[in-house]
Each structure stands twice: as structure tokens, then as C-alpha cells.
Amino acid sequence: SLPIVAIIGRPNVGKSTLVNRLAEEQSAIVHDQPGVTRDRTYKPAYWRDRDFTVVDTGGLVFNDDTEFLPLIRQQAMAALAEASVAIFVVDGRTGPTPADEEIAEWLRQQKVPVLLAVNKCESPEQGLIQAAEFWELGLGEPFAISAIHGSGTGDLLDVVINYL
Ligand code: GDP
Ligand code: MG
Asked: What family does the Swiss-Prot or TrEMBL record give for this protein (predicted)?
């Protein structure tokens, strides 16, 4: 089976948009599973001749970011268990939130390599400033991306495929 790239993050940061971006021009095979995995969707993707599967862990909708952290973490945990690498998506417009920090703290304890994608960075100059705020999460270099525009995702994928 293909290596798995797990997309993790609190609601509304752009996980599903990123998954669709990474899986663009692929047949959109969406695979829903019952039980604890029901909110994960799997899509085929490739980059530079490397085939992999992207998992969107965010099917749940929340009113409050922080209230449902255990559920987000449970989803992330299930996805991470089978992943070769994880992309932790955060929102460059809001800066780091308490929920981001809690997820980051948990991710730092996992064995799976984690890449930090600072989404919604449409402006190149401002994006660098927005991304730099996320060094404090302790997950290494933040990648400024825009899932909507597709900017920055190539640089991110160049690193992702090193872990497949
Ligand atoms: P998820 O809950 O993490 O899966 O987030 P979604 O992919 O559903 O996106 C949440 C909201 O953020 C939607 O309104 C998207 O249109 C918006 N969004 C996603 N990616 C970007 C981006 O790169 N730039 C901007 N400005 N908005 C984005
Ligand atoms: Mg989503």
C-alpha cells in the first residue's frame, strides 16, 4: 500500500482545502470508514513521481476550537498511527492559538516526522512574517503556504517526499 501523509490541525485552518490541492487532478476517491475513523478521508496524490495517500483528519465541525481538543487529538492519533509523515496545518491569519499549542505539544511527543504548514499566507512578504510566529510551536521551520492559491505547497511537498 502507498505511504500515508496525514493532514492534522484544528478546524477551519484549511486542512480539506489543502488535501484537495495536493490531490488535484486525481480521481477523487473518498473512502469513509465506520467508527473512530469515519471522519478521515483518503485521497491519492503524487509529487515528482512519488505516489502517496493524503488523509484528511478533519471531518468534524466544531463551534469552539478548544472545547473538543480530545476529539481532534483522537483523530490525529488514529491518522498518525499509519502515517509516514504528518502535515500540521495552522492559520497564518490568526497566529498560534492555545489549541495549536496543545496539538503541537502532543505532536512533539510522537515519533512521526511533522511538517508545519502555515496556511492562508497569500501575500509573500506578509506570509513570511505570519509564518515566523509559529516557530514558537517547537516543530521546526514553518512553511508559509496558501492552499487556495497553491503557493508554497511545492516547497512543502519537496520535503514531504523525503519521508515517504
Ligand atoms: P478545515 O476545517 O481545516 O478542513 O478547513 P477548510 O479547508 O474547510 O477551510 C476553512 C476555511 O478557510 C474555508 O472558508 C476556506 O475557504 C478557507 N481557506 C482554506 N485555505 C485557505 C487559504 O489558503 N487562504 C485563505 N485565505 N483561506 C483559506
Ligand atoms: Mg475539513
From this structure: Belongs to the TRAFAC class TrmE-Era-EngA-EngB-Septin-like GTPase superfamily. EngA (Der) GTPase family.
User: Does the ipTM surpass 0.85?
Assistant: yes
Q: Element (H or E) spanning 87, and its range?
A: strand 85-91
Q: Kindly report the protein residue whose alpha carbon is nearest to atom 11 of ligand 1.
A: 12
Q: What domains are defined for the chain?
A: 4-119+130-144 (3.40.50.300)
CA of 58 to the centre of ligand 1 (A): 12
What spacing in Å lies between the alpha carbon of 87 and ligand 1's midpoint?
Answer: 15
pLDDT in tens, 13-67: 999 899 989 986 554 444 444 433 344 678 899 999 999 999 887 644 444 555 5
Q: Which residues are annotated as a binding site for GTP?
A: 9-16, 56-60, 119-122
Phi then psi for residue 151, to 5 deg, are -75, 140
